[in-house]
Amino acid sequence: MPEFPLWIDKIKGAFHYWSKLIISLRGIWCFLPAILGIIFVYWANNYSTDLILKEYHETLAICIMSIAVILFLIRSLLFRLEIDYILLTMAVNFLCREIHFIGTDNAVVIVAAIVLIWIFYRKDRIWQNIENAKLVQIALVGTAFTYFVAILVQRRVFDSLYLFCRYISTKKSFFNRPFSIASE
Questions:
Q1: How many angstroms separate the CA atoms of 22 and 15, rounded?
Q2: In a shared domain, residues 56 and 121
């Protein structure tokens, strides 16, 4: 059997640990915001289009991101943990994007890249802060998953699947047709 480097064993162990943590009764709730978000978006798109008007969402997004900035600012001042500084930086980043400051379209990506480099550079210290905080780990995975699904919804990835399901549901299947020899 081939010898694998130690870092591959660490990655496999971490992946196994995280998959057990997330796919458990304690951790499955982290996927609910993304799943409920998809259901709400497509429901509102068909049955209540006034709920998905852009101007309401712009105002709501600014309010929610402002609350996130205030909460992460308080946490970072009280606890002084590096994870709180990272979350505060990203919250301010997204708030500036929602307010539509000039240049924030490209700045969001640049700041996210800088934060990602920061995370990779300081990963050991960050992990020390959240190693025993299972709830924080689950929440971070849920946040990343929800953000990823939100990007997919924004890019209309699920539209073709939705249209296909709707097309199938409106067609009469072969077995639902009334059987009559005279109609043949």
A1: 10
A2: yes
Say if residue 86 is in the same domain as residue 114: yes
Degrees to nearest 5, angle at CA 170 with 169 and 173: 75
With tokens 């960050």, the residue in question is: 126
C-alpha pair distances (Å), 109 with each of 6, 117, 182: 33, 12, 66
Predicted confidence (pLDDT) per residue in 155-184, tens digit? 777 666 666 666 666 665 544 544 444 444
Taking the whole predicted model, whether its pTM rises above 0.70 is answered as no
Q: How many CB atoms lie within 10 A of CB 98?
A: 20
Residue 68 shares a structural domain with residue 107: yes
Residue 120 CA neighbour count, 13 Å, CB half? 5
Residue 105 lies in a domain: yes
Write out the residue range of the structural domain in which residue 65 sits: 48-130
103 and 147 share a domain? no
